[in-house]
Amino acid sequence: MSIDSAATESLPTRADPMETTAQDRDVVLRLAPLFFVSGVAALVYQVCWQRLLFAAFGVDIDSVTIIVSVFMLGLGLGSLIGGDLADRHPSWTLRFFALAELGIGTFGLFSPTLIRATGALFVDASQWQIAVANFLLLLLPTCLMGATLPILVAHVTRLWGNVGKSIGLLYQVNTFGAALGVAIVGFFWFLLFEIDTAIRMAAALNIAVSLLTLAWIRRDG
Question: What are the residues whose beta carbons fall under 8 Å from the beta carbon of 178, sequence distance 6 or more?
Answer without folding.
Answer: 39, 40, 42, 43
